[in-house]
Amino acid sequence: METKSTQEVAPSVVLTSNLVLEHWQGHRRLTRRVIELFPEEELFTYSVGGMRPFAQLAMEMIAMAVPGVSGALTGTWQYFDESDFGKADPKTKEELLQLWDKTTGIIDELWPQIPEARFQEVDLAFGQYEMPIHAVIYYFIDNEIHHRGQGYVYLRTLGIEPPGFWLRD
Amino acid sequence: METKSTQEVAPSVVLTSNLVLEHWQGHRRLTRRVIELFPEEELFTYSVGGMRPFAQLAMEMIAMAVPGVSGALTGTWQYFDESDFGKADPKTKEELLQLWDKTTGIIDELWPQIPEARFQEVDLAFGQYEMPIHAVIYYFIDNEIHHRGQGYVYLRTLGIEPPGFWLRD
Question: What is the CATH code of the structural domain delimited by A14-157?
């Protein structure tokens, strides 16, 4: 069985669990830079084309991250509850960054506990999205890249140079 | 050796080669919808915050895709040459979409030929970017999501509703 498994799966491995975590946290470090670059007021109020201010987009990322990793780990999917973090919706850039960093730590703590075979299992994420766990995780990552790209436009229209897309440290 | 390999790699597999191809082509189908939604003129001329029009962003994606997959396959990295496609820079939406679809077909043809162990090899992509092949490939995918997110802002400011981010068919 193990030999069969090696032939079927191992030869075409593109990403292992550790590599996905590293990839995501690299993106999250870049998103953190974008949050930092926004002026305090514009972070919470500035909009282009009627879209949400960047703080709201960042809160959407935060709202998906820990509940998503927790759901991947436990099979129990619960939307973000601010009380989990012991504070209300961030009102300042500093509070948002603290919430971001707290999220980073919890992801790092939970991720390695995700059972080995779990990524290929199909689950009903948040009682609504039926897909393999790898697709759930990549939805979070891709959604973050997507909204961060919108933040780049916000910054440009504010006359602020966004960070290089390749920066992940 | 095979048993050892199974224990070390297979248990934490998140994405196999086929899944990555499917993931990317799903994103490429969404990007194609965004190209289609732009009015003909605005596709080539409309800009927000001094950024490039969406046709130029789409051409950057095209310029990376086939040369990148070809480099992953062969180890030879050559930037896109319009003559490879037998036509000059697209001047109409229809020409751009034709180039997009041609790219789709070539990716589908080349991808399954990428040697099994290749994704973990470090290479000097385009003589400039030293990283494992999986990181090169994800750079293309992430760059596309990033710029497409910017295209969503362009569409919104033009009063056009972008496609749902979850649409990949």
Answer: 1.20.120.450
**Which residues of chain A, if any, have pLDDT below 50?**
1-11, 86
Rounded Cα distance, A126 and B113, in Å: 37
Q: Is B124 part of the contact surface with chain A (CB cutoff 8 Å)?
A: no
Say whether B146 and A142 touch across the interface (CB within 8 A).
no
Q: Among residues 11-50 of chain B, which lie with CB inside 8 Å of chain A?
A: 11-20, 23, 27, 48-50
The ipTM estimated for the assembled molecules is 0.88
B42 Rama sector, left if φ>0, alpha if ψ -120 to 50, beta otherwise: alpha
Which CATH number does B30-115+133-169 carry?
A: 1.20.120.450
Chosen for mutation from B5, B6, B12 (greatest number of chain A CBs closer than 10 Å) is B12
Higher pLDDT pick, B37 / B4: B37
Q: According to the model, what pLDDT value does residue A79 have?
A: 76
pLDDT of residue B11: 46
Residue with tokens 């999220």: A103
3-state secondary structure of B132: strand
Give yes or no for A2 touching B (CB within 8 A): yes
Minimal Cβ distance to B145: which of A11, A48, A146? A146
Per domain, the residue ranges of chain B are 30-115+133-169
More confident residue, A70 or B14: A70
Contact between B150 and A145 using a beta-carbon 8 Å cutoff: no
> In this model, does residue B141 exceed pLDDT 90?
yes
Do B128 and B14 touch, CB atoms closer than 8 A? Answer: no
Structure-model confidence comparison of residues A137 and B116, the more confident one: A137
Whose tokens are 């062969």? That residue is B74
Strands (E), chain B: 13-16, 122-125, 129-132
Gap between the Cα atoms of B103 and B66, Å rounded: 6
